[in-house]
């Protein structure tokens, strides 16, 4: 198993651990495996290009630790801040039945899940680790790999990809061309409006968001959300923002943190309130002509476990009403 976004077996593990607090599994969850980080795989591949001693030879590669899939499920749950998963092993789940179950509860298609489920019955442990002598490197443990994979927003800014409502950059997040299931659960909603204003003029509305200036729509609802967050031990609305007009990376805007302020194109905010997952809001302005531009509002949510997914879908109508109104109010202010 390669531990990293895009590896089908890792994505399968990630989705199952995220979405199933109680897991009824085949006996293969006790099968030994020696997972390796995608970074370590790349070091071996690149090192092989310049090392004559590996030519014409075959090597097993693996990480520093042999673990069962059950241990990997629990390790992922711990690093993701989830409760310990209850794993019940049964002898009746065939690869075909397993693949249909995987298809039902994860985005991994049954056609791919079937050979994966069949292959997971076999021990995958390196027998000849001679490559560790020829191409030495520090091997990441499964826990380190998963902790790195979950450092989503901290790793890099958000890529400009309108069709996907923005994607964090590699190594742990998929490219726009990767399989749709890669990178874990990504939920998003995006809205746009064309306004008769330049990008610079639109930026004036974007940079004033929050604080005493408000959120252009349903300010009482925003204040209620801040009050509820405060009651739950979160940061609440805090003291608004540093300056009513100026904004820069690292600034606090109510219960958001500015990740990037790229005048006059983009403002990227990370939610710091208590949420069952990570929330990023992106406000953009893109020129469509000399006299008009397009305002874009993108919300992305990376849920933490099944509760996070229920939270997202349960509030979709309210969230859509709020953010549509916010974008409309922003456009009307120009």
Structure description:
By secondary structure, the protein is an alpha+beta fold. The protein has 12 helices and 14 strands. The chain has helices spanning 8-19, 38-49, 69-79, 95-105, 110-119, 131-134, 142-149, 152-155, 199-207, 219-231, 305-314, 316-332; strands at 2-3, 22-25, 32-33, 36-37, 67-68, 86-89, 158-159, 167-168, 187-195, 252-253, 256-262, 266-271, 277-287, 293-303. The strands form 5 sheets. The chain has a 6-stranded antiparallel β-sheet with strand order 9-14-13-12-11-10. A hairpin with a 3-residue loop joins strand 11 and strand 12 (266-271). Helix 1 packs across helix 3 (69-79), helix 3 (69-79) crosses helix 7 (142-149) and helix 4 packs across helix 5. The protein is elongated and about 65 Å long.
Element layout with pairings:
Blueprint: E1 2-3, H1 8-19, E2 22-25, E3 32-33, E4 36-37, H2 38-49, E5 67-68, H3 69-79, E6 86-89, H4 95-105, H5 110-119, H6 131-134, H7 142-149, H8 152-155, E7 158-159, E8 167-168, E9 187-195, H9 199-207, H10 219-231, E10 252-253, E11 256-262, E12 266-271, E13 277-287, E14 293-303, H11 305-314, H12 316-332
Parallel strand pairs: 1-4, 2-6
Antiparallel strand pairs: 3-5, 7-8, 9-14, 10-11, 11-12, 12-13, 13-14
Helix pairs in contact: 1-3, 3-7, 4-5
